[in-house]
Amino acid sequence: MNILMVSDIIFEDEKAGSGRVVTEISKGLQKKGHQVTIITRGRPGLPEKEENEGRNIVRYPFFSGNLVKTIIAGLFQTRKMLDSLIYRESFDIVNYNHPQSSMIVNRIKSISAIPKVYTFFSPWHKEYEVRAKSKGKNGIYSKTNSLIRKKIERRMIKACEKVIALSNYSIEQLKEYHNIGKAETVLIPGGIDTERFKPGQDKKLQRKMLGLPEDKKILFTVRNLEPRMGLDNLIEALKIVTKKRNNVLLIIGGAGSLEKKLKQMASEFSLEQNVKFIGLVNDEQLPLYYQAADYFILPTAELEGFGLVTLEALSCGTPVLATDVGATRELITGSEYLFKSPQPRDLAIKILEYLDISEERSKQISNESRTHVLNNYSWDKAADSYEKVLYEVIGKQEK
Questions:
Q1: Which domains, from first to last, does the chain contain?
Q2: pTM for this structure?
Q3: Is residue 85 very low, low, confident or very high in pLDDT (cuts 50, 70, 90)?
Q4: Sign of the CA dihedral 250, 255, 257, 263?
Q5: What is d(CA 186, CA 164) in angstroms, rounded to the nearest whole number?
Q6: Residue 117 to residues 34, 57, 159, 185, 258, Cα–Cα distance (Å)
């Protein structure tokens, strides 16, 4: 097949979960012998066109924070650039991954006759509402913005013959927000590179490599520092935890709009010795942080559509303590690892409980975590499932 994938982000350009899925699936399809082209947002300093691991990547003009300017560019400059590409390449099928970039590409005439599949990660309008609410914006402007996003996403989904979702939770969201029935959806969970994300031989070694203390219990989380991630609750929980167990270090990886606020919270709670912000984590170092940690903490407050970081941690043999939000229950090894609620007190209670378990029990949980991922998740398996869906949609179109 000659496959066109359309995505707001790819992991090469921006370290985010949905971008990781697009990158890994595109690599998997390319390895299976298919020709893959990706259309994604432009980034400062990145080429408009390049070949990366056998895949063609095309970046269209994008103006961060200015949807109107991006759409105008899409109507003129981007359309001219992409129209000739789509016409020349004669694609067999299109895989849309995000509503904004899909909307821009879908307006090109030469795309109309090509069969399409949509990958749904999270409702665009709900993500916007969470961000707007955190900034105190809940007026008519914000409500209009949310409605526009919802309509755009629904239109892009309806333009496709099939919708792929990574979790049953996402399938429920498709029904709730876009009236998409189960017959129109396919469940394809994300995967994990179990050779890269694997248990370390000795936590002391990983900690030494990362410059981390050997004598502390280490909690690790890596997230976009945004409101729905629940990181403010986690820092408040740590304040409770450290009153009983001061030998605890929370490492927070990632960047985002709440970085300043979270650092201020840590300072106000006198947690400077117990919280370490490491910024964006180098992809090569990420497995080391999982391996060095005693627990991975997922404090999500809203909209956890899948959770690749959960699988990465489990694959490294690092137990995950998580809020019962979104798809997380579908990924972890048992409900005993779920917080009662996303509130700080409930996070603290569960963390303290697991800080006190025996070394023998800790090793048992670590082995169970690794085995769970090996038995259920791989990118090869996900790529196989994608390939099957794409062939089915092309076959129906030809009939």
A1: 2-191+378-398 (3.40.50.2000), 203-376 (3.40.50.2000)
A2: 0.83
A3: confident
A4: positive
A5: 5
A6: 16, 19, 9, 10, 34
Measured CA to CA, the distance from residue 132 to residue 126 in angstroms comes to 10
The torsion defined by the Cα of 96, 97, 101 and 103, in degrees rounded to 10, comes to 50
The two tokens of residue 145 are 């913005």
Backbone angles phi, psi at 3, to 5 degrees: -110, 135
The SS3 assignment for 237 reads helix
The backbone torsions φ and ψ at residue 387, rounded to the nearest 5 degrees and listed phi first, read -55, -45
Total H helices, total E strands in the chain: 16, 14
Q: Which residues contact 368 (CB under 8 A, 6 or more apart)?
A: 333
Amino acid in position 110: S
Q: Which segment of 60-74, 109-123, 170-184, 220-234 scores lowest on mean pLDDT?
A: 60-74
What residue spans of the chain are helical by DSSP H? 17-31, 67-73, 79-89, 99-106, 124-134, 140-158, 168-178, 203-210, 231-242, 259-268, 286-292, 308-315, 328-331, 344-355, 359-376, 379-398
What are residue 241's phi and psi, to 5 degrees? -60, -45
